[in-house]
Amino acid sequence: MKAELIPVGTEILLGNIVDTNSSFLANQLPLLGIDLYFISTAGDNQRRLVDTLNRAWNRADLIITTGGLGPTQDDITREAIGELVNEDLKVDEKLWQELQELLRRYLGEVPHSNIRQATTIPSAQVMPNRMGTAPGWWVEKDDHIVIALPGPSDEMKMMWQESVVPKLEGKATKGIILSRVVKTFRLAEAKVDEMVSPISKLSNPTLATYINPDGVYLRITAKGNEKTEAQRLIAQSEQQIRDILAAYVWGVDDDTPGSVVGQLLGGKSWSLATMESCTEGLLCSTIAGGRESCVYFKGGLLASCDEAKIACGVDAAIIDGYGKESIQVARAMADTARRNLKTNVGLGVGGNIDSETNSGEAFIGLSSDEFETTFTHKLRGNRSRMKQRAVHAALFDLRKILLEEVQCI
Amino acid sequence: MKAELIPVGTEILLGNIVDTNSSFLANQLPLLGIDLYFISTAGDNQRRLVDTLNRAWNRADLIITTGGLGPTQDDITREAIGELVNEDLKVDEKLWQELQELLRRYLGEVPHSNIRQATTIPSAQVMPNRMGTAPGWWVEKDDHIVIALPGPSDEMKMMWQESVVPKLEGKATKGIILSRVVKTFRLAEAKVDEMVSPISKLSNPTLATYINPDGVYLRITAKGNEKTEAQRLIAQSEQQIRDILAAYVWGVDDDTPGSVVGQLLGGKSWSLATMESCTEGLLCSTIAGGRESCVYFKGGLLASCDEAKIACGVDAAIIDGYGKESIQVARAMADTARRNLKTNVGLGVGGNIDSETNSGEAFIGLSSDEFETTFTHKLRGNRSRMKQRAVHAALFDLRKILLEEVQCI
After folding, report:
1. In chain B, what residues touch A18 (CB-CB under 8 Å)?
2. Is B91 helix (H, G, I), strand (E, B) or coil?
3. Among candidates B332, B334, B312, B313, which has minimal Cα distance to B322?
4. Given an 8 Å threshold on Cβ–Cβ distance, is B311 in contact with A341?
5. What is the mean pLDDT of residues B339-346?
6. Model-level pTM greater than 0.80?
């Protein structure tokens, strides 16, 4: 089955929002054995949207729109789908009653324009929206399926999981596609590509490399008649990659630099606290945002200025003696975090980030009863990339130390 | 001039990365008087990419591709553009020399596959890439312009600003389009739409509403022969919106909940510190990530568990007496932040976030010599939306108190 995604909204074409829905759906489709060849974004213009829908109809079996299901005049996805399948829209009275109850409960009133969200066409099965007011549509006609999902991404995801996946699972016909991502760090893309070239020419599984903020990723994609066949092909390929790239591999799939550090800390029943300056809270929110992080991550301190560092307990003499951003201060920050939050390990991250020259450096301090060490890293890129790199560098340094410690035991 | 964006990469079609480049470029084009009607994403398949390029050629004057300029076999944008304009690729020896020097400097070696990045066609002018190894292309032929930009977004943005904008400015012909976004909060989209309906039917400027995590936005878009004409139309429309929506408007354009709070604090020369639990560092990274934030934001504490709250100085008796997440604890966290970091204002954010039921509540505590108050908010949505809502609720509560204080003086 071939699919085409059609994100709808002038707000996307004007760059007012970033379309993250397509990335979510693109991830989901292969798991159902569905190929995605095109994503075609259109604005809130009915003629151009109908053109886009027609082209998709000619080259895909499954069309999924996101957005344009709101209550306002510029929400035209319902009308465009009606035009595509040549059916008229009518208010579904039962749906309108339910919608009015919902609006009364949450808003205390019923804006009349919401009636547009209760219109439907004969071929459409309505999919409920537990989180918002826009119901979705499942339209099946002439060997095609057209699915209309709401734009807000948590509503879209919920409707996808609860209503769309169960219906689509029955339709998937032949073979499934699985993919797995192997994540490396501190290697250039062309270098990774050269190293894996002996195994990268196969047509099943295929191998592709691409750059991410936390390193170069390799994506293995396998097709199989059965899930187990695809899994076997992927496992084989992953082992070959691990043999070639060895210590440069730090994770797979949903692993993040934070989660791999968390697993290592968890394995030793150790707790972590952080203190940061130039990374502006990105270090603690990156670590704490991970699943189960509260088991090993007790908390973090962000000190935006020297006074705040000193107020938290960093010795003013170290700041005066070595400069406010220095490896010595990073080490003192690691100690301060560990002491204040009573943890086994402290991680301190400071540095200089210069947005004028797009360059900087990060100072990483690590402290525990077993080890005390510091690292320095050069940074390049814009402000947000440098912050991100400093956070990743700190987590990879911590990972390195934890792996060495584990091996010592 | 009409443009079409073509993001290239199977990693987008498999959902391995989110395409943020399109949103950046979509934002930039109107400033040059260029209309964008379609974004057409294609994978690393030369035939399908050439099809997509051909369609864009027929409906647009300007085609911008992003991605597919890497050194590997699956980077096929150069070949596809060659096929589109019917020209052969050749290695540009001078470019290859420069690239080899760059690679030697940064990697200490020259992977031979990088030679693909030194290939070009006769119609292409090469655009340098200061941040990476992929040069861009500017191709002008038969009244069309085709621009190939690298995929990594900071390389793409730099090349856009330094090489593309100066060239495009000379090409922009008639009229420019400006837009302005007015941001509201605590109103439903349909309600905003009803309230502004008296002014939303105009064709210039146009008005559109859409939902964002921090409220409902209204986008005013005006066309004018001169910049001043478009500016005048927008100013008029903005005033009408402000008259209608009054206190529900909290900002415009690049304003964020953090930046508006920062302006109010700055105006009073007050400093802020935060302490948070369930928002997992998102509160401090949201505030600290803003421009100039270090002037008013001294720092933040993240306590993932009770021990960490107590270690930072929250009275254990309050946690025992009122429950670990409660308005009393939020108020104590505000006090603790203010005391530890020696600031005028303390903001404490706690709460319960239940990913099973997709519901929760946030407790906000505010503390200063002048005021001490708490707020409670119901939360709905998935985990990350609830965290984000708690952070926005806290910042809007702080804004409210600061505005009231300002009016008292």
Report:
1. 18-20, 23
2. strand
3. B332
4. yes
5. 96
6. no
